[in-house]
Amino acid sequence: MDLALPPRVTPRAFERLAEIGAADQGKALRIAVEGGGCSGFQYQIDLDAPAEGDLILEGEGQKVVVDEVSLPFLENAVIDFTEELVGSRFTIENPNAASSCGCGVSFSM
C-alpha cells in the first residue's frame, strides 16, 4: 500500500527498542489501530514478530511494524518514546485524529 506520508519513528523510540533488546528477541514494536476505546479507535502497542504485508520501519538495528489495515489511520503519524514523572511509554502523534482521550490511547477520526 502506498501512502502519501507513511508513519515515521523518532530516534528516541528506536533507542528505547534497542535498550529493551527487541531485535535480539526477533521482535519488533507493532503499532495497530483497533475499534474501541472511549473515542472510537484505540492504539494497540506490542512487541511482536513482523508478518507478511506489514510496513516495516527500520532504524538503529530495530524495527517498528504496522499492519496494512492500520496504515491509513497512521498516515503521517510520529511514533515516539516519552519519559515523564508519571512513567514512560511509546506515544503516537497522529495528525489524522480529530480528538483523543486524556490518556492518548484512544482517538476519533
Automatic annotation (TrEMBL):
Domain of life according to the entry: Bacteria
GO molecular function, one term: iron ion binding
Transmembrane spans: none
Domain (Core) ranges: 9-104
GO biological process: iron-sulfur cluster assembly
Database matches in PANTHER family: IRON-SULFUR CLUSTER ASSEMBLY 2 HOMOLOG, MITOCHONDRIAL
Protein name (database record): Iron-sulfur cluster assembly accessory protein
Species this protein is from: Jannaschia seohaensis
Top-level taxonomy: Bacteria, Pseudomonadati, Pseudomonadota, Alphaproteobacteria, Rhodobacterales
